[in-house]
Predict the structure.
Amino acid sequence: MDSDNGIGKGNGNGNSLYSHLWSNGGPPRQITQDGRTLVHHRCVRCGRDFALELDGSGWHALYVGLLRIELLAESVNQRWLAEKCPGLPLWDKDREDRATRKDSNQT
Ligand SMILES: [Zn+2]
């Protein structure tokens, strides 16, 4: 418990995030992309990716690509943040969710 990893902070969606098991093999991966800084967390049980955005906007559901990370659609984002960890990968179900993207024109 040397540092606060930010889980539980943000916009009030933190409780379900506690049910995930974050990989703790090292410090969280910090990503800077398009002028935004996010701390990436991947659950080792369900494989879902989340990031805490350090500008205070809270948690986002993510797709992590080879070159970029992408925020998922708001509908998926809200569901993933609200759901407790399914405890195992839901690849078929989550594949559709991961194919969504947050509308970049939306603020
Ligand atoms: Zn999980």
